[in-house]
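Researcher: Sequence recovery benchmark, item below. Answer with residues only.
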C-alpha cells in the first residue's frame, strides 16, 4: 500500500476482531481497535505496532461511539477513514418460546443496532476520503441458514445481512463498498461466552418452561467450539481482501461448513432442511 489507510474495528480485543486488528496492523493499516476492558486493550497493544490504537467502544453506548468518531476524525483529518469492520457480537441462544424478550432485544441491540449505529456515525468519515471506503460486516453462516435454538443470533445476522445489502446500494453514489463476511465455525472465546450466557439465561427461566425443552437445556453445558473450527486468522485474511480488493465481493464465506450451509439454504426446500437439521441433532 502506498498510502496509509485507517480502519476501525469493533470488538477487536478477542477472537476474530483481534486477529483482524493484528493482521491489518501487520499489513500497514492504521488500526483503531475497539475495546471494552482496559486490560484487554493493553494485551492487544502489547502485540501490535505503534500504528494500532485501542479505542474505548461499546456499540450499545452512543457516547463511546461518538468519542471514537472524534478520535478517528482528529487523527485522519482530510484523508478520512478507509474502512469500518463491524465485528462485535454476542450470542443469545435457546428455545424462542421461553427466552426472555429482553435478552432477545439485547441480542439485536449489540449485533444489529450496534453495528448500524457505529456505521452511521462513521460514514461521513468514509465519504470524506473522497475515494471509496469500505464497510465490512461480520455476519455468519447463521445469517443465511437458521439452525434450531439459535433463533435470536440467526435473526440478528439475517438482519445484519439485509442492512448490508441496503447500505451497499445506498452508498454506491460515493463508491463506498459494503461486504459481508460469513464464517462457519471459528475457534474463538465466543463459544465459551455463549455457553455461559445461555446457562445464565437458563437460570432465569421457570422450571416448568425449561421442562418443555429439557433436552435442549440439558445439553447447554456441551456447547463448545467444534473440532472442525478454523483459526480466526482465516477470517482476518478474508477481511483484509474485502478492504484491499479493487472490486470486493458482496459476500465471502469462510470455511467449507459456511459454504455448505449457504448452499443448503439456497437450494433445498425448507422441509428437507428441517429433516437434515433434525437428523444432525439426534
Ligand atoms: N466464532 C465463530 O464460530 C463465529 C462464526 C461465525 C461468525 N462469527 C462472528 O464473528 C464475529 C466475532 O466473533 P468472535 O468469535 O471473535 O467472538 P468473541 O471472541 O466472543 O469476540 C467478540 C468481541 O465482541 C466484543 N463485544 C461484545 N459485546 C460488545 C459490545 N456491546 N460493544 C463492543 N464490543 C462488544 C467482545 O468484547 P468483550 O471481550 O469486551 O466482551 C469481543 O471483543 C461476531 O460477529 C460473530 O458473530 C463468529
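Model:
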Amino acid at each position: 500500500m502506498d498510502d496509509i489507510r485507517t480502519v476501525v474495528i469493533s470488538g477487536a480485543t478477542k477472537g476474530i476482531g483481534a486477529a483482524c486488528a493484528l493482521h491489518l496492523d501487520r499489513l500497514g493499516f492504521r488500526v483503531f481497535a475497539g475495546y471494552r476492558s482496559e486490560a484487554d486493550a493493553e494485551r492487544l497493544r502489547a502485540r501490535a505496532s505503534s500504528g494500532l490504537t485501542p479505542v474505548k467502544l461499546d456499540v450499545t453506548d452512543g457516547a463511546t461511539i461518538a468519542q471514537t468518531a472524534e478520535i478517528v476524525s482528529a487523527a485522519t483529518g482530510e484523508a478520512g477513514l478507509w474502512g469500518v469492520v463491524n465485528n462485535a457480537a454476542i450470542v443469545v441462544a435457546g428455545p424462542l418460546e421461553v427466552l426472555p424478550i429482553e435478552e432477545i432485544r439485547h441480542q439485536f441491540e449489540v449485533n444489529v443496532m450496534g453495528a448500524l449505529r457505529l456505521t452511521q456515525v462513521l460514514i461521513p468519515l468514509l465519504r470524506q476520503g473522497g475515494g471509496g471506503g469500505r464497510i465490512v460486516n461480520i455476519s455468519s453462516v447463521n445469517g443465511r441458514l437458521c439452525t434450531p435454538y439459535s433463533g435470536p443470533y440467526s435473526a440478528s445476522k439475517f438482519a445484519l445481512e439485509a442492512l448490508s445489502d441496503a447500505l451497499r446500494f445506498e452508498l454506491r453514489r460515493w463508491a463506498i463498498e459494503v461486504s459481508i463476511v460469513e464464517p462457519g465455525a471459528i475457534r474463538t472465546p465466543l463459544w465459551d461466552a455463549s455457553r455461559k450466557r445461555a446457562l445464565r439465561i437458563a437460570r432465569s427461566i421457570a422450571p416448568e418452561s425449561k421442562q418443555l425443552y429439557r433436552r435442549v437445556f440439558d445439553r447447554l453445558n456441551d456447547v463448545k467450539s467444534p473440532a472442525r473450527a478454523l483459526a480466526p486468522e482465516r477470517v482476518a485474511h478474508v477481511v483484509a481482501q474485502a478492504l484491499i480488493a479493487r472490486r470486493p465481493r458482496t459476500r465471502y464465506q469462510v470455511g467449507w461448513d459456511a459454504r455448505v450451509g449457504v448452499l443448503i439454504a439456497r437450494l433445498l426446500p425448507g422441509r428437507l432442511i428441517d429433516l437434515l437439521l433434525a437428523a444432525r441433532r439426534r
